[in-house]
TrEMBL record:
This is Shikimate dehydrogenase (NADP(+)). NADP(+) binds at E80, G129, A130, G131, G132, A133, N153, R154, T155, F156, A157, R158, I218, G241. It comes from Neoaquamicrobium sediminum. Shikimate binds at S17, R18, S19, T64, N89, D104, Y220, Q248. GO terms for molecular function: shikimate 3-dehydrogenase (NADP+) activity.
Amino acid sequence: MAETMKAFVIGHPIAHSRSPLIHGYWLESHGISGTYERIDIAPDDLERFIRNLPKSGFVGGNVTIPHKEETCRLVDRLDEAARAIGAVNTLWLDGGAICGGNTDAAGFAADLDVHASSWRSAKSALVLGAGGASRAILHALTTAGIADIRLVNRTFARAEELSERFGTGIQAHHWQDTNDLASTSDLVVNTTSVGLNGQGEMPLDVAQLPANATVVDIVYTPLQTPLLAAAAKRGLKTVDGLGMLLHQAVPGFERWFGVRPQVTDRLRGIIVADIEGARS
């Protein structure tokens, strides 16, 4: 009988995570003897959990909030993306060494390649928010070679800090400048929690955007945020946040279980049904 390979997702809280549904679907689809489980790890227990990973019986796992940044300090090796972003979302073992990577930027890029393939030729991008999620988006945009990235945030100093971290091509701007910047932005990415379950009010008036603009919201609950609804009503190309969640899961599954899975319409449908069921 084949040995059961075990993977996990850790966070605090963790009950909301849909990663087990994604990886469980792939395990079943590929007939792999494996498991993927949620583990609630309080911040005070994180270091002990990471240090014990080589003896835990797990092949690796995912890391979600609030542990992504702290995990950088606890692993033996970081991949280039995790080092640049300053956060780890994927763990694996290599000869006893604990390795940390970040697949969020790659997941964002892979999803846009499918649903808005012209994004890589954008002359300018407007990024809303300078929190943890923004780092992965900035890394994806700079890696794609987009030379003019406008970063707006409620706290200007935070936007300045990230623009300095990621270097040439990223300019920090004040939140109230959003609409002025929008008129010459080909790509807009919302990385804030505005729109999450109906929270907050978006500072962007989509009427200011060029007719060829693509609007992305990394929030996926709801799938159609007020920003995406307004953009779609105006006839703009829109991309929701669920695809990023699905595509960022691909590299980890491949590392742990040795098979590169596919993001399919059927998988997306399963996750959409789960999201809608949780809201009903």
